[in-house]
Amino acid sequence: MHQVARTAAWVVSAGISLVIAAGCQGTKPQPLAQSASTAAPKMAPSNYEFVAPGTVVVWRDLNSGDLFEEHVKQPNGRMMDSMIGSRRSYAFVPDPWADNENTKAADIEPLFPLEVGKQVTFKRNPPAGLATDVVKVVRTETLQLAMGPVDTYVIETRSEIPSDNWVGEATFWYAPSLKWQVQMVIKDNKGDDRRRQVVEIKQP
What we know:
Elements: E1 56-61, E2 67-72, E3 79-84, E4 87-92, H1 105-108, E5 119-124, E6 131-145, E7 148-161, E8 166-175, E9 180-188, E10 193-202
């Protein structure tokens, strides 16, 4: 099983999400946010900053329709640190499988500041076996969200553990103006399937 390999995933399954809106369960799957413009926005390089500690990010699970809260803590360098319900979310974003237990901070550092075309490839050593991760900044995109249009960097990660026959893929939409990722998709070949979108950011 790959639960250990995915310990650093910064979001949790819908089954342990903290629902915060009555009547939102049981909704049919919802689509990802569409681009608000056919033209890619021109964006300055971004260092992938984080919102202030104490910020509450409200997410919608696009597979279930449920809402849940992410409570942001003090980051550790490039590692975000937050709580979703009773579960800690701790990783080198935008790679949801990379944390300080199996990743060297220097390996992901060349990705920053974010610019389209940048890419890093590095090895990790999770308990499931040696992993190879490739993280790419593939494009910029203006998403039309409930809070309005937001310019984002789109970052894709592919992770493989050949000895365990595991492959995971993730896409994150990071919004420099909001200092947080506003949409994400995480899937692997073992049944993981997460699609999330931010609906509100509550400042501390």
